[in-house]
Amino acid sequence: MTANVGIYIGSDNKLEFRDGLDLYKPTSTQALIKVESSGINPADIKHGRFGLNEYIAGYELAGVVLEAGSSSEWKPGDVICGSNATNKHKPWAHGAHQAFAVAENGHMWDRVPPQVPLSHAAGTTIVLRTAADAMFNTFRLPLPQGTAEPQPAVHGAILIWGGATQVGVAAIQLARAAGLSTIYATASPQRHAKLRQLGATEVFDYRDEHVVENIQRALNKSGQDLKYVFDTVVSSGDVSSTAQCVALKSRCEVVYACTIPVFEDTRWNMVVASRGHDFPEPRGPFKAQPEREVVLQRAVASALAEYGKSYIVPNVRVLSKADEVIDAMYASANGQTGFEKIAIQHPLLG
Fold first, then answer.
1. Residue 321 and residue 266 share a domain
2. Average of pLDDT values for 64-85?
3. 262 with 145, same domain?
4. I need a surface site. Which of 54, 76, 276, 295 has the fewest CB within 10 A?
5. 8-state DSSP, 211
6. Do the bridges between strand 202-205 and strand 180-187 make them parallel or antiparallel, or are there none, so unpaired?
């Protein structure tokens, strides 16, 4: 076993490369993973605003189980991807951006099918679960049946505001797999063609001052009622994204979902990546909902099984040098990484 190296986030939310990290010994309910790849998320740094720091950074990873405790869900040789639950006192062994990490029983872990590249699997879990919480728990769309069986059509239209975000990209694909035929999204014009390839019916420029009227016109022409709205951005400013979404008219009741709290409007339902554990402040509190967690588990397993057919992670860029990784993590937190998912190849080169 080689030395453990990784990226540490300090109390000031500054990142640094560290070597000589502990080599963890799994307990009975843990598995020791040789991390092959980990996925960069804005939350890697942004969560530090809420005191989630002073540990090895990162949440999502993919790798091979080296050693498993007597009661672990996994066994040596298993290839898995996922994340441990988020909390303010995260053990260093839970950090994704290091060469060796630990997977806890009952957290967000899945087996990686052979057709899924580990650099893609490493950035799948949190994004996919967040989108699935909107599609299948909040909107109660039917879980996809896979490409072997045609999905029954679901009537009504969905608007995904922020379709080019990682969560938005996942949501478009899940909506299509669930049987929705009218899928509208907003994004910058250069992303429109790709989002249509992924399943969007029509894509609108969110910067256009007439964007709401354009979407309304398309809805009226389609003959479909707007039934679902998912705001993956929740932007502020003179005219917020949530205000633009609720300005759209529909003949039926609309269900609204969002990725961060909208305290001023109780119509909005915040979605999260895990329903298996209590979710603390500042975005909660939410109590664990085991029945909803089962839905998320099934959604992830289905998407991974159908990877390359009905679900993909587009535009994956892989980095392996520590200084490039740190720069990319800052850029991700600042919303500067564009339409791509950045994965880290381990072990990092210092």
1. no
2. 96
3. yes
4. 76
5. H
6. parallel
